[in-house]
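Changelog note: in this version the structure field was regenerated for every chain. One regenerated record is shown below for reference.
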Amino acid sequence: MIRLLFIFLYLVFFYFISIPLLFVEWVVSLLNKHYKRWLPLPLVTWSFRCITAISGAEVTVLGKENVPKDEAVLYVGNHQSYFDIVLTYARVPRRTGYMSKKELRYVPVIAQWMKYLHCLFLDRKDPRQGLLMMKQAAEDVKSGISFAIFPEGTRNTNPETLLPFHKGSFK
């Protein structure tokens, strides 16, 4: 319970520190149209590693040597908890966008960080929009940004089985 309290306090701290950092990124991008946002990846990676350490989670990465460091990849996994994002982002070697539910687009500050990290917001009830998002993800991978999807489309709390994959996940 104490760890959860520390994580909560850390997240509140990060949330409020993010506001001026996002503002600086925005101003710099207005002044320089060719500016590539460099701050989000190291800051989010560092923050998620701090959260992982505070939580006491022991992380073992198997097969890391098989992930190319100089090209974008597609990560596919089953989504068991919200902590999956924290654990994976703390370990990916390059900027990685995630497919996210559209409701997160309306969460202040977090939505902006997600946009800077090339996350896409999916309306799970609209198959046509889902196909457009998958095409956008494919374009991101071609342009050098890795991408992660959870093809079950939602969290699955049963580690023994997989939920059916959504048809559009692999088109």
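Spot check on this record: The mean pLDDT is 81. The helical segments are 2-31, 40-55, 83-89, 110-116, 127-142.
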